[in-house]
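Pasting as-is:
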Amino acid sequence: QLMPRVKAAVREVRDEVRELREEVRNDRSGDPPLALVSRKVMKKINQFIEDRKKRKKAATTTTAGKDSAVGPPEGIQVVGSRSDEEKNTTGEEHQQQQGRKKGVLEYIEAEVPGFDKEDPQLRDIISQTQGTYYNDDFLVDDITVEDETLLTSQGWIRDIHQPRLSIWRKHLDSNLSMYKLFGSFDSISAVEFYNAQINDQYRVQWDDSVISLYVFDNVANNREVVYWATKFPLFLSNRDYVFERTHLMDREKIILNNRSITHKDRPEVPKVVRVLRYGSRLVIFPKEDFHQKGMRYVLTYY
């Protein structure tokens, strides 16, 4: 009596996954996210921008003539212009300063307004980035304090409450829930806890459910793309993930974000279900110092 219901539920989930997969595949904006561009391609983009700026400057100089413009006296910087230090900023740093939400074409347009979008060199650059994009919006919120009034007002429901662990759940839609964990440890430091989260080789050793887990693209110093395949129980297909992982740290906390993406170099594998909607944020707070024992964390994921 139970098996027909289980089979019907599995068919329903498969249909929903198929619909979402088609929706993701059909999402071709033509402007790949700047945040997912590799270091190699980013160098090409910045070289393209620099070349076009030189051409534009040369054309302007030729048209205007030598005496048409007078620059500021030596040693005086024009208000609103970039200093030499800013001009010498590396492509990666400048990319971060411009904001990670931009697409490649949007970034170039901001640097070189009116550029030729049909430029063969540019089309070659775009072709190297197409097929890599975010699957969905990043749905994780910024709540890092277990304030019951705040959480309940935002739709969170507490499922578990223990001295060192609380688990909250939030219903997002008919197929997706988000979870938030508040926890703490006195026996390890914030840095040790963080290192345990990003040591993929170590996880393969202790987590029997892991089939494969590795970084295959280092986009920036604090950003990489990860492939993760995991075993599921009998009668259920194994799952795999492709996601962007970012690391941020300031004087108060460490933040580790994961966000699912589609990447041209990691297509879907037959007989394995690709998880298209996945996101998480782990925020780690030291009790006193990052290297001293004692820390708390907030993990939000869906």
